Amino acid sequence: MPWKEVTAVNERMEFVARLKAGERMSDLCREFGISRKTGYKFEQRYEEHGPKGLYDFSRRPRRLARQISPGIQTAILELKREKPTWGAAKVHEVLQRQHPEMELPVRSTIHDLLDRYGLVKKRTKRRRYHAYPTLREEDIQAPNQLWCADFKGQFRMGNAKYCYPLTVTDFYSRYVLGCEAMESTQSESAKQGFEWIFREYGLPTRLRTDNGSPFSSRSVQGLSTLSVWWMRLGIQVERIEPGQPQQNGRHERMHRTLKEEILPRAAKNLLAQQEQLDRFREDFNERRPHEALKMKCPADLYKTSLKRYPESLPEPVYPHHDLVRVVHGCGTVNFRGQKNFFISRALIDQPIGFEEEQDGIWRINFMDLDLGFLDEETMKFSPISPEDSDHRLRKRDREHSSKVGEQHA
Q1: How far apart, in whole angstroms, are the C-alpha atoms of residue 79 and residue 118?
Q2: 278 and 393 share a domain?
């Protein structure tokens, strides 16, 4: 039978003693119930280590696969404490850039180390939603095709006043174009923030926002003073569905990082708060690697737009319309003579086009956007729904394409 656990060392000593006294190896192995290989092993260990060789050796591996040297462990913990919102992947990437000669462990080992020191924040698993953006993600293949904008939730500063951070990001590269501390969400202050961003980075093709103020309003087609200004600049305005923030998910994810990084009440006033936001923006764009970008930083992918901010707004043109009128200061339009009707305060001082679709029924447009229909007899304006507007715009594009095809044929 095999070694008895309690007297294993004594039996091994007896086995070796009798072996040294001249007894045969095969007979002793048969008597002690062990293999000849085991017998020769303990004979060799006795010759090399003496009686200590008959004790069981430690089975601990000579090299632990997940063991980290003290120097590397210190570097990992220091970087994590400096950037508490970074995970193992970002810590690994940044240390690899800063110390290419350092032999770093894999990400899972770094995560285990951070977890062991209580530096990993456990998050509950969230339900995944399917987004319904106007422009599909796979269609966006370059910077400045789509920008996203929103106001981060307000918070109080050290002086008990509220700060409303206005944030703008590039969808493709996730580059934070602007993170401006605002005293309010008023249209005029937001316009100043966007004007600075447009002068610095140029103009995007499209700009996506939610349906809140100042990006949208209860006016016809949700137009606001800010969105009208964007359209005059040649930017296509797109909004997510009401109550569907996941359609602007990349921007909202950046907001979560911003919330984790900034310290409410740490800044005493708006100027000090702006300095904190500028540090976050620089860190997010240039130092923080992004897993969705294959561990590149947003600054590695972003390039300024070739479409520059104009010094003066281009005037809308309506070559295919029958009439063009300018909206008055109170949001009304003088149609013919003394006939006025209200359309929208967001369109004050803006020219709009009229096209007669049938006798006495006029379709009204602001640039390429269908606003609604005017009944000349009753002077009643009926706004068009956004769904009908999109349908009519697609239909118009198809008709235009077919006409161009016929001309070429």
Answers
A1: 14
A2: no
Asked if residue 89 lies in contact with residue 289, where contact means CB atoms within 8 angstroms, the answer is: yes
Residue showing tokens 């995944």: 128
**Tokens representing 271?**
């100027």
Residue 221 token pair: 């087609």
DSSP structure class, residue 266: S
Q: What is the Cα–Cα distance from 198 to 182, expressed in whole angstroms?
A: 17
Considering the domain boundaries, does residue 342 fall inside one?
yes
Sequence letter at residue 356? E
pLDDT of the residue at 386? 55
Q: The domain containing residue 106 runs over which residues?
A: 72-116
How far is the C-alpha of 234 from the C-alpha of 228, rounded, in Å?
10
Assign 406 a pLDDT band (cuts: 50, 70, 90): low
Most confident listed range (74-83, 115-124, 239-248)? 74-83
Domains identified in the chain, total number: 4
Dump pLDDT digits (tens) for 262-315.
876 678 889 999 999 999 999 999 999 998 899 999 999 999 999 999 989 989
Smallest CA-to-CA distance from 170 within 308, 309, 299, 310 is with: 299
Note whether 353 and 219 are same-domain residues.
no
Half-sphere exposure of 63 (CA within 13 A, CB side): 2
Same domain, 251 and 295: yes
CB 252 within 8 A of CB 246: yes
Query: In sequence order, which ranges of 233-309 are alpha helices (DSSP H)?
Result: 249-261, 270-286, 298-301
The answer on 203 and 284 residing in a single domain is yes
Looking at the domain assignment, is residue 297 inside a domain? yes
Per-residue model confidence (pLDDT) at position 289:
92
